[in-house]
Amino acid sequence: MNIMLFHSVYGLRPAVHAAADRLRAAGHQVRVPDLFDGQTVETVEEGRALKDKIGKEELLRRAILAAAPYSEEGLVYAGFSLGGSIAQNLALGDRKARGLLLLHGTSDIAEGATVDELPVQLHVADPDPFEPHDWLNSWYLQMQRTGADVEIYRYPGAGHLYTDPDLPDYDEASADLTWRTALGFLATL
């Protein structure tokens, strides 16, 4: 499977490369574009400031440019938090998308977006201050209306970016379960 994996608001950190290596070890081709041009941050606040400085439209433009050379092959879009939001936007706009793997983040859904049974898997902390229950319930129903086939996995007690071992949110048991489940999902595509 060809996977386009987008980083979180922290930038292209070692955890993203480790995730890509894990996916490659399972036989997938993985690309990890750097949407922040080499910049990484230490806090969510710094990351949000950098994201705002670059701008949403520019981040999407960079992501589209990174994915475009490979989209004819049928990509699985994946991402961490902010990267999940970007992956979702690209997957819903790419008729050849093979799947969508969201780790810790979702996005608004464009009016009129439609897909043909796009397989979608979301892994999220429970509770998650960035993905509250009301939002996730609404997001789930909207994704179903687009035609997506959605699965949501919630991890009680985990922090927002619980798969990143270099952050305080890290939860080893939840991260291990997430990766086992995600690899199983990817194997079905």
Task: Provide the descriptors you would attach to this structure in a database record.
globular; Rossmann fold; 189 residues; alpha/beta; six-stranded parallel beta sheet
Summarize this entry quickly.
By secondary structure, this protein is of the alpha/beta class. It has helices spanning 14-25, 44-54, 56-67, 82-93, 133-146, 172-187; strands at residues 2-6, 29-31, 75-80, 99-103, 119-126, 149-156. The protein has a single domain, classed as Rossmann fold (3-Layer(aba) Sandwich).
CATH superfamily: Alpha/Beta hydrolase fold, catalytic domain
Number of strand elements: 6
CATH architecture: 3-Layer(aba) Sandwich
- What count of helical segments does DSSP give? 6
Low-confidence stretches: none
In helices, the fraction of residues equals 40-55%
Under CATH, the topology is which? Rossmann fold
What is the domain total for the residues? 1
Question: What is the chain-wise order of helices and strands?
Answer: EHEHHEHEEHEH
Termini gap:
8 Å
Shape: globular
The Rg value, from CA coordinates, equals 15 Å
Question: Which structural class should the secondary elements be placed in?
Answer: alpha/beta
The top level CATH class name: Alpha Beta
Largest sheet report: 6 strands, parallel
Describe the fold and architecture.
The protein has a single domain (2-187), classed as 3-Layer(aba) Sandwich (Rossmann fold). With 189 residues, the chain is of the alpha/beta class. Helix content is 41%, strand content 19%. The mean pLDDT is 96. The chain is globular. The N and C termini lie close together (8 Å). The chain has helices spanning 14-25, 44-54, 56-67, 82-93, 133-146, 172-187; strands spanning 2-6, 29-31, 75-80, 99-103, 119-126, 149-156.
